[in-house]
Write a structure and sequence with these properties.
The protein is of the alpha/beta class. The protein has a single domain, classed as Ribokinase (UDP-N-acetylmuramoyl-L-alanine:D-glutamate ligase, 3-Layer(aba) Sandwich). Helices cover about 30% and strands about 30% of the residues. The strands form two sheets. Strands 5-4-1-8-9-10-11-12-13 form a nine-stranded mixed beta sheet. A four-stranded mixed beta sheet has the order 3-2-6-7. α3 packs parallel to α4. The longest helix is centred in the C-terminal third of the chain and has 15 residues.
C-alpha cells in the first residue's frame, strides 16, 4: 500500500448540542458536549490508517499537543510535526438538529506559514495556510486539494496556481461557487460534496448517493469521505467506486459525536455491499 501524505490542521474539537441557533440576541442551554480529536488534516490521516492504509500527517503541534500526539502514535499514524509555542487549534461546533455552526481558532496553525515544503508522491492538501499549500505543491507529484473553510485565505493567484497543479479538487457547493467567481474551473477534475444529497463527480456528471444514517453529529463527514476515497484510489478502483467508498465511510462517522469514528475496511465493505447491492 502506497503512503499518502496529508497536510492540514490538527485541532481539538469542542462539540455542543443545543436546542436552537440564534440569528440575533438570545441564549440556549447546552444539552450535551464532548471534546474530541479533530482538524481536517488529522481526520483524513487517521481515517486512512484505520481503514488499513498508510498515511503521514505533516502538520504543526502546539504546546498542548502531547496527548494528541501519543494517540496518533498509538493508532499508527506516522507524523512529521513542526512545533509551536501557541496552543493547538480549536474548533467550537454547535449542533442544533441538522444545522451546524462552527467557530475556528487557528492558534498554532498560524505558524504553518513557517513550515517548509516536503517532497511527496501522493499528497492531500487539506485546509491549511496558503503559504504552506504552495510550498507543498512545488514538491508534490499526485496532488489532491481541498480549500475547505480556509478558502477565504486564498487569493486568486494562489488558488489558481494550486488548482492548476492538482489532479483532483474537493469542495462543497458553496466553495465551488466562490472559486468560480475567482478562476475558471472548467475542465478541472472536481468532486463536489452535497451533504445528505450525496456528491457529484462534476467532470463526468455522475451523482453518488449518500447512505441513510442516524446522524448524531456531521462533524468530519467530509474528511471521512476523502479518507475513503483515497483508500479506494490506492487500491486501484475507478473514481466512481472511490466516491462510493467515501460515502460509506462517512455514514459511519456521522453516527457518533466526533470526527474519527472510522470503520475497518472489512466493515466498510459489508455496508457497501448491503447498500449498493454488489461487491467492490
Amino acid at each position: 500500500m502506497k503512503e499518502i501524505t496529508v497536510v492540514g490542521h490538527c485541532a481539538y474539537d469542542y462539540i455542543f448540542t443545543v436546542a436552537k441557533h440564534f440569528s440575533g440576541d438570545g441564549s440556549s442551554y447546552i444539552e450535551e458536549w464532548k471534546r474530541c480529536y479533530g482538524g481536517g488534516g488529522a481526520n483524513i490521516a487517521v481515517g486512512i490508517t484505520k481503514l488499513g492504509g498508510k498515511s503521514k500527517l505533516y502538520s504543526i503541534a502546539g504546546r498542548d499537543f502531547k496527548r494528541y500526539e501519543k494517540y496518533l502514535d498509538k493508532i499508527g499514524v506516522k507524523t512529521l510535526l513542526n512545533r509551536s509555542e501557541k496552543r493547538v487549534a480549536r474548533a467550537y461546533i454547535f449542533n442544533a438538529g441538522e444545522e451546524q455552526i462552527i467557530y475556528f481558532y487557528w492558534g498554532a496553525s498560524e505558524d504553518m506559514r513557517k513550515m517548509k515544503g516536503i517532497k511527496t508522491k501522493y499528497l492531500h492538501i487539506a485546509p491549511c495556510h496558503p503559504e504552506l499549500a504552495v510550498k507543498m505543491v512545488e514538491k508534490g507529484d499526485f496532488i489532491v486539494f481541498e480549500p475547505g473553510q480556509d478558502l477565504k485565505r486564498f487569493d486568486r493567484e494562489t488558488l489558481s496556481y494550486i488548482i492548476e497543479h492538482s489532479e483532483i479538487i474537493f469542495c462543497n457547493e458553496n466553495e465551488m461557487k466562490q472559486m468560480e467567481k475567482l478562476i475558471d474551473m472548467r475542465g478541472k477534475n472536481v468532486i463536489v460534496t452535497l451533504g445528505k444529497k450525496g456528491s457529484i463527480i462534476r467532470s463526468k456528471k455522475i451523482k453518488i448517493p449518500s447512505l441513510p444514517a442516524k446522524t448524531k453529529d456531521a462533524t468530519g463527514a467530509g474528511d471521512a469521505y476523502k479518507a475513503g476515497f483515497w483508500m479506494g484510489l490506492m487500491k486501484g478502483y475507478e473514481m466512481e467506486d472511490c466516491c462510493r467508498i467515501g460515502s460509506v465511510v462517512a455514514s459511519f462517522v456521522v453516527e457518533k459525536i466526533g470526527a474519527q469514528h472510522f470503520p475497518s475496511w472489512e466493515r466498510m465493505e459489508k455496508r457497501y455491499r448491503k447498500f449498493f447491492g454488489k461487491n467492490l
